Amino acid sequence: MNYEQIFDQAIERLHSEGRYRVFIDILRNKGAYPNARCFAGHNGPKPITVWCSNDYLAMGQHPKVIAAMEEALHDVGAGSGGTRNIGGNTHYHVQLESELADLHGKDGALLFTSGYVSNDATLSTLAKILPGCIIFSDELNHASMIAGIRNSGAEKKVFRHNDVEHLEQLLAETDPAVPKLIAFESVYSMDGDVAPIHAICDLADKYNALTYIDEVHAVGMYGPRGGGISEREDAASRITIIEGTLGKAFGVMGGYIAADTRIIDVIRSYAPGFIFTTSLSPVLVAGVLASVRHLKSSSAEREGQQEAAASLKQMFRDAGLPVMDSTTHIVPLMVGDPVRTKKIADILLAEYGVYVQPINYPTVPRGTERLRFTPGPAHTADMRRELTSALIEIWQRMELDLRKAA
């Protein structure tokens, strides 16, 4: 058995399909986001502008967050010391879970080391606890949700994306006595569209199903206090479990769920992904705590982000660039070919100092490769105009279609 050849062939397949992933070598400039320094392929750092960060509101740069992390570092040290059960449960963790439960109007919350782990651990554990559970999953659910469902061993029924009629058809075909769980996202990050939350909850009520919503691309950014789309739509009380991340709009790291204390206790007590993992560093938790508290009372960051996203979409439309329809802060630009997508991204970085990561399969289906821009409150009007001009020049250079708005 030639193991080296197998590994080489696996990597070569990615190269031949044009979807081999290259990680950029950068450092962000504290207090000056989205400005950063790129080290790859240069004699020393080159100034660049970051256009694809999930630090949507630049809270990872916020003075309150940085100050809270520095204070925690000097107060308690760097690491947590172990799992939550063995030395890793600090007062910071307890406070943050209380703030997150309050954010979503739930009785309890539970922290995880990432949003991926929170989805995987919760879904896999919940379905194992419910005898004979069937999970109804939106076809565009995140890989972490799919992994959790697969790891649960439960039967899965996939409904067409945001198609409540198809979901009801599947629910109606299922034994009424069987436990059911509907798993979906609020904002789908590659297309930027939003789930019909109330319609899904209506079906959950009708067919006696639990609901699980992934709000990772919405928490902090929507709702009066940043509780996500479920808060904006006044639907949080109808959702059984709300899952979110601490590494996107809140700007630090980690994941969580918010739910009834009974469910929180079950996941806390049974999920291996929680029980056997060293807890988040109290330094990180302190930063998130400051971020959550700030965004509960400040809407300036949310308003700035929405303004920037709407402005960039309109600039792209006016230029005839193939911007996809999106009702959220996500601004996807369709290319439809992995090689071209990477080439455009490479030109933007090398010639214009613009960093945007190409999005290829398996993140999106083949033939829908795209560039995904995430403008935030710190992306100025001049930055947006310069980006649009750069894309127009590249589109013309590569002889791609520009369709001027009527």
Q: What are its keywords?
A:
4-stranded mixed beta sheet; 16 strands; alpha/beta; globular; 7-stranded mixed beta sheet; 14 helices
Question: Topology of this protein?
Answer:
Blueprint: H1 3-16, E1 26-28, E2 35-38, E3 46-50, H2 63-76, H3 91-103, E4 108-112, H4 115-129, E5 134-138, H5 143-152, E6 155-159, H6 164-172, E7 180-185, E8 187-188, E9 193-194, H7 197-207, E10 210-214, H8 229-232, E11 241-245, E12 255-259, H9 261-270, H10 272-275, H11 282-297, H12 300-319, E13 331-334, H13 338-352, E14 354-355, E15 358-359, E16 370-373, H14 381-397
Parallel strand pairs: 3-14, 5-6, 5-7, 7-10, 10-11
Antiparallel strand pairs: 1-2, 2-3, 4-12, 8-9, 11-12, 13-16, 15-16
Please tell me about this protein's structure.
There is one protein chain. This protein is an alpha/beta fold. The protein is built from 14 helices and 16 strands. Helix 3 (91-103) packs parallel to helix 11 (282-297) and helix 4 packs parallel to helix 5 (143-152). The model has no long low-confidence stretch (mean pLDDT 95).
